[in-house]
Design goal:
Blueprint (H helix, E strand, L loop, with lengths): L1 H49 L6 H24 L15 H5 L1
Amino acid sequence: KTTKEQDDKYKTQESKSLDQTVAELTGDRDTTGSELAAVNEYFAQIKDRCIAKPEPYAERTARREAEISGLKEALTVLEDEAAFVQRKQRRSFRGATLAAN
């Protein structure tokens, strides 16, 4: 009879311990589920911002035309301006040019 009582006592303790473990793990699962939902929501926001979307043809064409016209304007400025003409200067190391004159 004593062994049966001891067996019942240990099984009751084990049952209580298992119930407590189940409660803790259920809480952990709920917390993890809510964290996962938050991370998935954040990922969806980041994905919308970061993944490149194809640019419409009209926008690409307009941007390229503006770039080409800007480059043509810069080329005409460079060709027409006399301010950009460089003069050849004679220089050498450590002021040797100054000492020679």
